[in-house]
Amino acid sequence: MIKIKKATKAHTETLALLARTTWAESHGQYIDDKNDLLTYLNKNFSTSRIEQGINNPKLLFYIVYVNDLPVGYAKLIVNATNKYVKSQYNCQLERIFILNDFIPLKLGKQLIDFVEEKAKSLQLDAMWLTVYIKNNRAIRFYEKNEFIHVGNVNFVVSGKAYDNIVFSKRL
Question: Which end of the chain is more exposed for a tag (fewer CB within 10 A), N or C?
Fold first, then answer.
């Protein structure tokens, strides 16, 4: 059975491990220097950093479970502006990740539909995100889910810039 739950402080360790693992699975092969990858993971997915995020009312975390096993998550940032998105009432889908072994279950579609409904319930009218230009699977996923390419930005890991696409969708 599939469930999606809002993450609370009690989920900090689970979310930190899930976030670290899924980010490494989806992006690790693109980071040239594996020490840079390790530094990024340690900085961004520590339990203290995740707990700070969970305690921030502008950040919303949702964990997807399959038979009570946490296998993916999403992170929304409410009212996150972007120069390419013409909306004052928007959110950034900063992270949406599923463990590789569970991707064939199509949980990403269920999770993105869920967070879009949550955003609508908050009276937000647009959602945006960034994705690495070489992440073809993710690009296809967002295009299938009606996101439109609206701009480009750099994502920096240890001083090295990686070209990213900015996608946006009206809700």
Answer: N
- Rounded to whole angstroms, the Cα distance separating 127 from 16 reads 24
Domain of 160, in residue numbers: 2-170
Q: Are 140 and 159 a contacting pair, CB within 8 Å?
A: no
DSSP letter for each residue of 64-121: EEETTEEEEEEEEEET---TT---SSEEEEEEEEE-GGGGGGTHHHHHHHHHHHHHHH
Residue 32: pLDDT band (50, 70, 90) is confident
C-alpha count within 13 angstroms, C-beta hemisphere, residue 101: 6
Where residue 67 falls (left for φ over 0; alpha for ψ -120 to 50; beta otherwise) is left
Residue of 91, 12, 77, 18 whose CA lies nearest to 49:
12
CATH number, position 95: 3.40.630.30
Q: Which residue has the tokens 């969708």?
A: 169
The stretch 9-17 carries a mean pLDDT of 98
pTM of full prediction above 0.90? yes
d(CA 138, CA 123): 26
pLDDT in tens, 16-28: 999 999 999 999 9
Give the count of domains, the chain.
1
